[in-house]
C-alpha cells in the first residue's frame, strides 16, 4: 500500500481507484468519505442502512470508500496513509461480503471539501452515463458541510449550488453530537421549511436524508474513542465496535496509533 500511496502522491492526479473496478457501470454511487483511522461498525451501519434504504431497485450499486490525503481540519496522524489504505481494503472485503449486490471500491483524492470531491467524481463516473452520486455522512459532518467558514468569502447558496442540485446526502444521526436525536432527525424538514434561509436554500432539504442508527450501541462509536481504547489496552471492548478483520489488524499493529 505504501507504493500505491506514493504513486498517487507523485502522479498529480486528483482521484484514483486503488482497489476494485476502475469503471463500474452502476447508476448509483454511494461515497463514504472518511479518515478511516480506523474504519468501524458505525461506518458500516451508515453504509448498510443507506444502501438498504436508497439503492435503486434491480440495479447494482457502487460503494466507494474515499480517503482524502488532505483533510479539511485534521493532520495526517496517528495512523499513516498506507496503514489506513490497508484497513480500508480489509473493510472493503468485509462490506463486499455483506452487500453482495453492490460493487465496492477504494479510492484516494487530494480534495478535502465535498464540493471539490464531487466535481472530480462526476468527471470520473457520470460522463455519458446517468449516475447519481450520494454522499454518506454522520450528522457532525453535515453541520460542517454547511459551515460558512469553509467557503469564506463566498456564499454557501452560490458555492454549493451545483453540488446540492445533483447529489444526495445520506446522514446517520450520532449520539455524541451538539443536537439531540430528535433535532437531527427533523433537520431536513427544518431546511424544507426555510428555517436556515438565506444561508441554506429550503429546496435543498429534499436532498438530505437523516436516519436513526438501528443499533443504539453504535451511536456513540468513533475512531478517536477506539484509538483511546487501544492506547489504554481496553481491546476486548473493541470487538463490538470493529469488523473482525479490522479488529485483528489493529490489535496486531497497535503501534500505528502511537
Ligand atoms: N457513530 C457514528 N454515527 C454516525 N456517523 C458516524 C459515526 N462515526 C462516524 N460517522 C461518520 O462517518 C464519516 C466518516 O467518519 P470519520 O472518519 O470522521 O470518523 P469518526 O469516527 O468521527 O473519526 P474521529 O473520531 O477520528 O473524528 C463522518 O461523516 C462521520 O460523521
Ligand atoms: N466543508 C466540507 O466539505 C468539509 C468539512 C469538514 C470535513 N470535510 C471532509 O470530510 C471528511 C471526514 O472528515 P473528518 O475525518 O474530519 O470527520 C474529510 O475528507 C474532510 O476533509 C469536508
TrEMBL record:
Transmembrane segments: none annotated. Gene3D superfamilies: HUPs (3.40.50.620). It comes from the Eukaryota. CDD domains: NMNAT. Pathway: Cofactor biosynthesis; NAD(+) biosynthesis. Keywords: ATP-binding, NAD, Nucleotide-binding, Nucleotidyltransferase, Pyridine nucleotide biosynthesis, Transferase. The keyword Transferase applies. Pfam families: CTP_transf_like (PF01467). The keyword rRNA-binding does not apply. It catalyses: beta-nicotinamide D-ribonucleotide + ATP + H(+) = diphosphate + NAD(+). Residues 33-100 form the Cytidyltransferase-like domain. SUPFAM superfamilies: Nucleotidylyl transferase (SSF52374). InterPro entries: Cyt_trans-like (IPR004821), NadD/NMNAT (IPR005248), Rossmann-like_a/b/a_fold (IPR014729). PANTHER family: NICOTINAMIDE MONONUCLEOTIDE ADENYLYLTRANSFERASE. This is Cytidyltransferase-like domain-containing protein. It comes from Saccharomyces uvarum (Yeast). The gene is SUVZ03G0230.
Amino acid at each position: 500500500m505504501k507504493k500505491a500511496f506514493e504513486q498517487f502522491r507523485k502522479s498529480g492526479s486528483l482521484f484514483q481507484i486503488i482497489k476494485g473496478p476502475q469503471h463500474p457501470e452502476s447508476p448509483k454511487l454511494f461515497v463514504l468519505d472518511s479518515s478511516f483511522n480506523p474504519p468501524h461498525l458505525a461506518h458500516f451501519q451508515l453504509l448498510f442502512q443507506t444502501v438498504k434504504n436508497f439503492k435503486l431497485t434491480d440495479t447494482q450499486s457502487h460503494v466507494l470508500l474515499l480517503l482524502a490525503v488532505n483533510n479539511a481540519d485534521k493532520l495526517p496522524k496517528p495512523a499513516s496513509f498506507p496503514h489506513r489504505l490497508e484497513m480500508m481494503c480489509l473493510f472493503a472485503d468485509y462490506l463486499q461480503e455483506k452487500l453482495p449486490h453492490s460493487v465496492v471500491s477504494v479510492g484516494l483524492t487530494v480534495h478535502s471539501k465535498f464540493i471539490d470531491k464531487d466535481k472530480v467524481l462526476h468527471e470520473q463516473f457520470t460522463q455519458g452515463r446517468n449516475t447519481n452520486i450520494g454522499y454518506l455522512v454522520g450528522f457532525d459532518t453535515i453541520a460542517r458541510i454547511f459551515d460558512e467558514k469553509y467557503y469564506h468569502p463566498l456564499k454557501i447558496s452560490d458555492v454549493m449550488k451545483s453540488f446540492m442540485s445533483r447529489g444526495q446526502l445520506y446522514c446517520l444521526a450520532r449520539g455524541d453530537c451538539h443536537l439531540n436525536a430528535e433535532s437531527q432527525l427533523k433537520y431536513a424538514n427544518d431546511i424544507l421549511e426555510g428555517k436556515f434561509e438565506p444561508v441554506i436554500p429550503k429546496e435543498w432539504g429534499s436532498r438530505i436524508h437523516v436516519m436513526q442508527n438501528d443499533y443504539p450501541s453504535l451511536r456513540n462509536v468513533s475512531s478517536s474513542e477506539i484509538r483511546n481504547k487501544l492506547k489504554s489496552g481496553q481491546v476486548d471492548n473493541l470487538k463490538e465496535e470493529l469488523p473482525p478483520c479490522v479488529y485483528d489488524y489493529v490489535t496486531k499493529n497497535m503501534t500505528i496509533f502511537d
